[in-house]
Structures are given as structure tokens and as C-alpha cells.
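Late entry, written up from scratch paper. The run itself happened at the end of the previous shift, but nothing got recorded in the book at the time, so transcribing now.
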Amino acid sequence: MGPNGSTMLEPLRQGLPPIDPATVSNSASCALPPRYEAVRGARKFTSQTLDNWNLADRFDDVALVVSELVTNALRHALPKESAGTDAGFEEGLNPPVRLHLMRWASRLVCAVRDPSKESPEAREGAEDFAAESGRGLFLVESFSDSWGWHPLAGTLQGKVVWALFRLGPE
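Output as recorded:
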């Protein structure tokens, strides 16, 4: 089946703000195909997950951030020949992009794994720094309480980009 979530998220935990991973109360993840329709699937998965966790009121902000992180992964992290197609990826076998949602008592983290080791930074001056694509990380920073990224460890290639949302007192 491939690496389980806890192994894969070790580097994510190291890069997160001080939250004890043992206290995570809920987590869910889904594999996303290397096609741009995956953004719609990620939003639907986020909606269902937040509904299940009684966090539907946070959907707008979280879904916007999820959309940007998934779009960035599809646009910048996949090999050019595979973006927009299923070329080179067998269904279910180490999917190139994966969305994780994790909930603590007063925190929600969304994390997107992708196969690139490139830093997720705004590409100023690059050809693709159009008004639409260039504002993605600015939106992530604006709508989440904090965000960051961490390279994956061990046999896993790529990185995890995460965004954290405070849920307020419970």
C-alpha cells in the first residue's frame, strides 16, 4: 500500500508549530490525481471532512488555502510531461499529490505532499508569475494563521507544505 500516514508525516511534525502529534484527535487524507480537476476533488474532500468534524463554519478559509496548495503542487511540483495527464502514474501507487487534514483540540492543519523538493516560494520574475498564479502563497499566508514546508525524509521524495488554522477555545 505504501507508506502510512504517520511515517510520511514525521517531517511535517518536525516542521510544525509546537503541537504534540500524539494529541491529534482526527486526521484524514486523500490521494489526488495529477489533473487540474483534482482541486475540485480536494475541496469536496475538505468539505466532507470539516462537516464530519463539526467545523463546517471554517470551510471558506480552509478550502481557499487547500485549493491554492493543491494548485501549486499540480502547477509547479509535477514533471511537466505528467501535469494535466495520468502519464507515468499508476492509479493508487504512490500518488504524486496527497492532501492531509489533521485536527487537534484547538488547531487544524492542512498539508499537501508533492514530489518536488523545490521551495514553495513566489516565483517573482518567472514567466508564470501572472496575477493569478503569483498570489497563491500570499492568499495562504493571509487566510491561515501560519504556514510552512518541510522536505520529506527517508525513501519518500518531495516535500510537505502545510497551513495551520487556530480553532479558538473549546
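Helices lie at 5-8, 10-15, 38-52, 59-77, 131-134, 136-143.
(Scratch paper discarded after transcription.)
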